[in-house]
Amino acid sequence: LWVIPSWDTTEEPKNNEIIMDPGMAFGTGTHESTELCSGLVEANIRKGDSFLDIGTGTGILAIVASRAGAAKITAIDIDEAAIRASRENLKVNNVKNADIFQGDLYEAEASFKKMQFRAPFEFDVIAANIVSDVIIEISPKVRTILKKGGRFVCSGIIIEREADVLKQLELDGFKIRKIIRKNEWTAIISDV
User: Fold this and answer.
1) Which of 2, 27, 79, 80 has most Cβ atoms within 10 angstroms of its Cβ?
2) pLDDT above 70: percentage of residues in the chain
């Protein structure tokens, strides 16, 4: 995938291109944690999967998931600036199969259920490119909304906190499938 600044193109994005304007949000693809997470999302989406992006930032992981074949995408963030940036980036990149919610994981679940007429809030792939403490905090909840055989991709983990995140994932019943590192950052793919 190629990430192109929005101010550097006037063309429609090709399938391997993502047009990105970060605004005030995090996630342009240049940070190691975003790069690691994007690669794991792209490699672990199967055509037709449902995908949840926790802490969507600019929406880059939602765009990657859509390009990789996800059928239904849900993106959430607590930051209003991130919601604005992700909506714009999804639109520019022609992603039409995504719902965006402002709020934490629990607030998004309540909004999703109202909007989707009691559809289950569960996913084939869940990604969280956020800080270690938040991954540790949400891990038990993620386990309950991940479909059987689903994959959890987490990144934004500094290497010094890797063991803490792995311990929590294993306590919550995740099987660690792969750990990748770049400089001082770690990304983990696990499943149930």
Assistant:
1) 27
2) 83
Q: What is the pTM of this model?
A: 0.87
**Range in 45-59, 84-98, 164-178 the model is least confident about:** 84-98
Place of tokens 């890797």: 162
3-state secondary structure 28-85: CCCCHHHHHHHHHHHHHCCCCCEEEEECCCCCHHHHHHHHHCCCEEEEEECCHHHHHH
- The answer to whether 62 touches 28, Cβ cutoff 8 Å, is no
Looking at residue 73, its pLDDT comes to: 97
Q: Phi and psi dihedrals of 123, rounded to 5?
A: -140, 155
Are 53 and 108 spatial neighbours (Cβ–Cβ below 8 Å)? no
DSSP-derived 3-state class of residue 138: helix
Q: What is d(CA 128, CA 126) in angstroms, rounded to the nearest whole number?
A: 7
Is residue 31 very low, low, confident or very high in pLDDT (cuts 50, 70, 90)?
confident
Spell out the residues 6+ positions from residue 132 whose beta carbon is closer than 8 angstroms to its own. Answer: 156, 157, 158, 161, 164, 165
The pLDDT of residue 138 is above 60: yes
